[in-house]
């Protein structure tokens, strides 16, 4: 029997501030609330580093600018509109993929989870990287297309319309709630 979890990735205050979309957080909150109501685990994935960011190589194009610097503590804080409950897991990753430098795979396997429902910011970042790695780790995958956000709508559309369907089911928050969660045991 398949056991699913909703992954909410990189929906941190520092990230959401760079992706202004007034409809995104309420829509994502709907997915989070529906997962909780259906009894599905909601797992949060955030990017974070130790003081001085010793995990970051200055050659890294994405994170190199913070090598040797402290990041503010609130940088890892999930946006309050979709904040985790005290009993929900928060996984800290060190790169783009939710699996990179984290214990996500161990947590999922220990919980018997084999199906991931992916959401997050950005579609071309954490969602793409996590999807690819999760597929290689043999997880079943669903992507909530409108539960993902990217600064480039064209890239978002190409990924959710053409790339992701090769390795995942792609649907919307409302369709996922109506088709999947309503019939969830």
From TrEMBL:
Residues forming the Isochorismatase-like domain are 4-174
Q: Which UniProt keywords apply?
A: Hydrolase
Pfam families attached to this UniProt entry? Isochorismatase
Q: Which InterPro entries match?
A: Isochorismatase-like_dom, Isochorismatase-like_hydrls, Isochorismatase-like_sf
Q: Name one GO molecular function term.
A: hydrolase activity
Give the protein's recorded name: Nicotinamidase-related amidase
